[in-house]
Design a protein that fits this description.
The protein is of the alpha+beta class. It is built from 8 helices and 8 strands; from the N terminus they run αβαβααααβαβββββα. It has a single domain, classed as Ribonuclease T2-like (Ribonuclease Rh, Chain A, Alpha-Beta Complex). It is 35% helix and 16% strand. Keywords: Signal.
């Protein structure tokens, strides 16, 4: 009788365990464009945005590993997830909101560049989420969590002097009610550590709403609360022209001199 129950349980749960282990949380990743755009790896056009934008919302295991992407043979986490060629049509009703809050940093003014980034996120993180056939709700869940936990309202404002990592963690905790993950990169040649992303974690639910502590507190080039982290301001749009201003004035004066 006992063995029989075990067998029954195995048969019931087997279908859920063959594909992949169930994941535990969603990680909402918010990026600070000035830090992504000033290290020379990414040419950001047409301007460097100066507000927090979404990178993605990632199904994640308790051990901090992201759920691997859908693969029909190697990772069949679901049956028939929405295919990438349907993404544009499925997201058309929220395209403008996504363009504003989930833009491609490579060129947010170009619809196709944005779409490529959304398709990438769908393929790598959406198809094995709890919304394999509902990309609209998947993308909306991230928009909604970003809106509810708006980092623009914290005291972490861009400035020249660095913050202590603990100040950043505490500021996010104040609005989120849980410990975030702080990700940094390093600016060259200054060697300054900069805030690259703030990641917020939520208990697995459909939709995810309840914050929880992230599995790790630091990643990238910062790793402790005493680190000094800069939150760089966006360059002003006319930035690259500023050094030429004196020459322009000189030329103008020169030409005027000739005319007069
Ligand atoms: C993390 O946990 C998942 C699910 O249990 C497992 O598949 C994966 O191999 C683990 N990764 C690491 C690096 O331990």
């Amino acid at each position: 009788m006992h063995n029989c129950l075990l067998l029954l349980a195995a048969l019931v749960f087997l279908p859920f365990t063959v594909g992949q282990a169930p994941f535990d949380l969603y990680k909402l990743s918010l990026r600070w464009p000035p830090s992504e755009c000033n290290i020379g790896q990414l040419k950001c056009t047409p301007t460097v945005l100066n507000y927090w934008v979404i990178h993605g919302i990632w199904p994640t295991y308790e051990n901090n590993t992201a759920v691997p992407k859908y693969d029909k043979t190697n990772n069949p986490c679901t049956h028939n997830p929405t295919k990438e060629n349907q993404i544009q049509a499925k997201l058309s009703s929220i395209k403008n909101t996504l363009t504003q809050f989930w833009p491609s940093l490579r060129n947010y003014a170009d619809d196709n560049t944005n779409l490529k980034d959304w398709i990438h996120e769908w393929k790598f993180h959406g198809q094995c989420s709890d919304y394999p056939t509902d990309p609209l709700s998947y993308f909306n869940s991230a928009l909604s969590l970003r809106r509810k936990n708006d980092l623009a309202g914290t005291r972490i404002q861009p400035r020249e002097e660095p913050y202590q990592a603990k100040e950043i963690v505490d500021a996010v905790k104040q609005i989120l009610g849980a410990t975030p993950e702080i990700t940094c990169n390093t600016h060259r040649p200054s060697g300054m550590i900069q805030l690259r992303e703030v990641r917020m974690c939520f208990k697995r639910a459909k939709p995810p709403t309840e914050p929880r502590d992230c599995p790790i507190q630091f990643s990238g080039t910062c790793n402790k609360e005493s680190d000094h982290i800069r939150v760089p301001p966006a360059p002003s749009p006319g930035h690259s022209q500023v050094p030429w201003l004196p020459i322009n004035i000189f030329l103008l004066a020169f030409c005027l001199g000739i005319v007069i």
